[in-house]
Amino acid sequence: MLKINNLHVKLEEEDKVILKGLTLHVPAGEVHAIMGPNGSGKSTLSYVLSGKGGYTVTAGSATLEGADLLEMEPEHRAAAGLFLAFQYPVEIPGVGNMTFLRTAVNAQRKTRGEPEMSAGEFLKVVRDKAKTLKIDAEMMKRPVNVGFSGGEKKRNEILQMAMLEPKMCILDETDSGLDVDAMKLVSDGVNALRAPGRSFLVITHYQRLLDHIKPDVVHIMADGRIIRTGGPELALEVEQNGYADILAQVQ
């Protein structure tokens, strides 16, 4: 599904190298978690994969089902099946949630050469999916994320993900700012989307999210590269002992 090989990336503004030979493979149907100390490059990885500006790839490759992600414009990466859930979802004043969702869904369908979803079909599907995330009709009428609580913003993003049905879902610290109830609701929404043809890359600081979204593989990232890979027990080790011992082993 997602294959990253020897990826080197620098931040253009500061001419600072952030990713230093990162290699990662997420097979179809698997959930991989990335943990690591602040400044290790976790969010940079998500931004580079999604096509955010301000970064220069100096070496390496990143492909999604064999297609070169780094050569695509951001909208084509999305149409190819890549989805990024932000740590801090942006507000879009003046654009209603329903309008935004239907436009996004049909834009992707058009790019892939598929028929657009009719208004009636869209309403039926979105109401069904919103109900499972406890997103009411009033919330759907509001401008995208405007005045939403942290939990509402994250639930709204999971709804977007459910509607777009991506192949590769990247969750960048989606547990940030969530209370226990909101985290469970968001996690349930993610778990409902797990499927043989869909993969997840979950970036998080905390084991608590991984109590709800069970990963197949856990990677530890530091100084711009993956330094250790293991099963779910690796996240528990980090929770109990921190990163010091793991970092010491690779120095």
From TrEMBL:
<dbReference type="InterPro" id="IPR010230">
    <property type="entry name" value="FeS-cluster_ATPase_SufC"/>
</dbReference>
<dbReference type="GO" id="GO:0005524">
    <property type="term" value="F:ATP binding"/>
</dbReference>
<keyword id="KW-0547">Nucleotide-binding</keyword>
<keyword id="KW-0067">ATP-binding</keyword>
<feature type="domain" description="ABC transporter">
    <location>
        <begin position="2"/>
        <end position="248"/>
    </location>
</feature>
<dbReference type="InterPro" id="IPR003593">
    <property type="entry name" value="AAA+_ATPase"/>
</dbReference>
<dbReference type="InterPro" id="IPR003439">
    <property type="entry name" value="ABC_transporter-like_ATP-bd"/>
</dbReference>
<protein>
    <submittedName>
        <fullName>FeS assembly ATPase SufC</fullName>
    </submittedName>
</protein>
<comment type="similarity">
    <text>Belongs to the ABC transporter superfamily. Ycf16 family.</text>
</comment>
<dbReference type="GO" id="GO:0016887">
    <property type="term" value="F:ATP hydrolysis activity"/>
</dbReference>
<dbReference type="InterPro" id="IPR027417">
    <property type="entry name" value="P-loop_NTPase"/>
</dbReference>
<dbReference type="InterPro" id="IPR017871">
    <property type="entry name" value="ABC_transporter-like_CS"/>
</dbReference>
<dbReference type="Pfam" id="PF00005">
    <property type="entry name" value="ABC_tran"/>
</dbReference>
